[in-house]
Write a structure and sequence with these properties.
By secondary structure, the chain is of the alpha/beta class. It is built from three helices and seven strands, in the order βββαββαβαβ.
């Protein structure tokens, strides 16, 4: 299991201090939400690694046709007691055969690590008070 720290993470979300961007330029290791991805996918070069972040109430089947284009899928845990992202990871690995990185984000604590690993997560961004 890889542990991700924000200041050393090569993946970065789109946007900045001025709000949402007007246009999306393809750059390596950009982490997009589904709306951003749908706006940019037609022009996205195949050789530029891109990631997508999903809320835990989004259906992973909605991005199934685009999975080969993603190097990373970040699944969000809004609360550590909400396990829907576990189910998303199992679907990604099992039924959809996603071979890229699956990352746990949000309210992720150390106690979740064994189940995260069993469900197919590769990396985790621990909550600030849990990071090592």
């Amino acid at each position: 299991m890889n542990f991700i720290t924000l200041h050393k993470d090569r993946w970065h979300p789109l946007g900045g201090e001025d709000g949402p961007p007007v246009s999306i330029n393809a750059e390596p290791h950009l982490l997009l939400d589904t709306n951003q991805w749908h706006a940019a996918r037609a022009q996205w070069p195949a050789d530029v690694p891109v990631g997508i972040k999903l809320a835990n109430d989004q259906d992973v089947e909605d991005i199934a046709s685009d999975l080969p284009r993603f190097a990373l899928v970040a699944l969000h845990f809004p609360k550590w007691t909400d396990g829907r992202a576990y189910s998303q990871a199992v679907l990604l690995r099992g039924r959809l055969r996603f071979a890229g990185e699956i990352r746990a984000t949000g309210d992720v604590v150390v106690d979740m690590l064994p189940l995260l690993r069993r469900c197919g997560f590769d990396s985790v961004q621990l909550r600030a008070d849990q990071s090592r």
